[in-house]
Design goal:
Layout lengths: L1 E5 L5 H19 L11 E5 L2 H4 L9 E3 L5 H17 L5 H5 L1
Parallel strand pairs: 1-2, 1-3
Length: 97
């Protein structure tokens, strides 16, 4: 299988889209002679990889994720969760607290 674990606020929606495109293209290449093809089995979601993918066959699967600069990620979480969702004013004092 082709496995993608989404890290929160790390471009995971973009990563999931790339993941699905690769799975679709790989399936298409594997079955070029057939008019219809099955998309390669793909899984993606916000989860802890060590729990969800603990029993995967490492010889028959590929697990990947995205990483992001921790400071940039923290600022993004603040604006997404506090400012946008809870209407917290975007001040330094609110960010630090």
């Amino acid at each position: 299988g082709f496995l993608f674990t989404k890290a929160f606020k790390c471009g995971s929606s973009t990563g999931a889209g790339i993941h699905l495109r690769i799975a679709r293209n790989l399936a298409r290449r594997r079955s070029q002679m057939e008019q219809y093809y099955q998309v390669c089995r793909a899984r993606f979601g916000h989860a802890k990889a060590n729990k969800v993918f603990a029993n995967r066959d490492k010889r028959r699967s590929f697990l990947w994720t995205l990483v992001r600069d921790p400071t940039s990620r923290l600022v993004s979480v603040f604006f997404h969760m506090k400012v946008s969702r809870r209407n917290v004013p975007p001040t330094l004092e609110n960010f630090v607290s």
